[in-house]
Design a protein that fits this description.
By secondary structure, this protein is an alpha+beta fold. The chain contains six helices and 22 strands. Helix 3 runs antiparallel to helix 5. The longest helix is centred in the last third of the chain and has 18 residues. The chain is globular and about 75 Å long.
């Protein structure tokens, strides 16, 4: 028997559990033509789009209204659940249609405002907390070794707090993810092992791209040893090709972090994957999945970087973008 997809639109009150929040689904369902959740990583907010057949009577929530969207299958516990803030509407026709757009993270103008300031040496975890503090969001940096990484003086020259947070994640080998009142920097060493499998017979269409020229076998960075008054190399990885970073860094730990981040970026960029398949609410960004039944080069772990969930007259389906995993020995 075919599973029946469902969606629920909730209107949580401050401090209220989403599971206990009033439902708006019954109000919208007679008009709904498409529900889309775009789960995005890399400093971009999750996005929700709801499309309605518009007879002029739909009681639309106001701009700034906090809602929540849940989607999945009836009788199945696994579901995708995200909070969102209504930020715009678009009306078109004929036939008369209205599209509601909402974002999962409230990127205020203050977060995006460019600033000129200098941050004294501190850890990566502390600096992220300093950037986030004015916006009443909590911060998470994993693994602990990344959170404790001691940074040198950081100049915030014409950058927003949000932009600097994204840059810090990329510079030191992590992914920045804003969601549900948190700013998260997740290093690749903190990625859990894959617990999800996607089989070939589940997939409607796939496309994989391999570009070995983007990879580095090893990366060499240098730091200045003041005691010996010389430039000292730090190597991450093994073998050729060798990539050498031009900048001289302040400490061995910072040099190693930059070299490791560059090595991992090259490995991840060397493999790209796109999948189309029937809806799976357990597929989320920053999740590792393993392919099975394709071919040797594909049947390994991949890191999901972008997922679009859609429910419409065609049913429930997903579009997935993924990249190579940095600790894959044959990436």
């Amino acid at each position: 028997m075919a599973r029946k997809p469902y969606y629920r639109i909730l209107k949580p009150k401050p401090g209220q559990s989403l599971r206990d929040a009033p439902r708006l689904t019954e109000i919208f369902a007679p008009y709904m033509s498409r529900v889309q959740l775009h789960d995005r990583g890399g400093g971009r907010s999750d996005a929700v789009t709801l499309e309605f057949a518009d007879d002029g009577t739909i009681p639309l929530p106001p701009h700034g209204q906090r809602l929540a969207l849940e989607l999945g299958y009836d009788g199945v516990e696994s579901c995708a659940l995200t909070e969102m803030t209504v930020d715009q509407y678009a009306s078109s026709g004929p036939p008369a249609t209205i599209k509601l757009s909402a974002t999962g993270a409230d990127f205020t103008s203050e977060m995006r405002a460019k600033k000129e300031r200098t941050h004294e040496p501190t850890t990566l975890g502390n600096l992220l907390a300093i950037l986030a503090e004015p916006y009443d969001v909590t911060t998470v940096v994993k693994p602990d070794s990344l959170a404790r990484l001691q940074l040198p003086l950081v100049d915030q020259a014409g950058q927003s707090d949000l932009g600097l947070a994204v840059e810090l994640a990329r510079t030191y080998g992590g992914i920045f993810k804003p969601a549900n009142g948190q700013w998260v920097i997740l290093g690749y060493d903190a990625m859990p092992a894959s617990q999800l499998t996607i089989r070939r017979d589940e997939v409607t269409q796939w496309r994989a791209h391999f570009a070995a020229r983007r990879r580095a076998g090893s990366v060499v960075a240098h730091y200045h040893d003041f005691g010996r008054a010389q430039r000292v190399p730090v190597t991450v990885g093994d073998g050729a090709p060798v990539t050498r970073l031009d900048k001289t860094f302040e400490t061995a730990a910072i040099a190693e972090a930059h070299a490791r981040a560059r090595l991992h970026r090259g490995i991840r960029a060397s493999r790209r994957l796109q999948l189309q398949l029937p809806g799976r609410p357990d597929l989320q960004t920053l999740t590792r999945v393993r392919l099975d039944g394709f071919r040797r080069e594909l049947d390994r772990d991949w890191l999901i970087t972008d997922v679009t969930h859609v429910i419409d007259e065609r049913g429930y389906r997903c579009e997935v973008d993924a990249e190579g995993v940095a600790d894959d020995p044959v990436a």
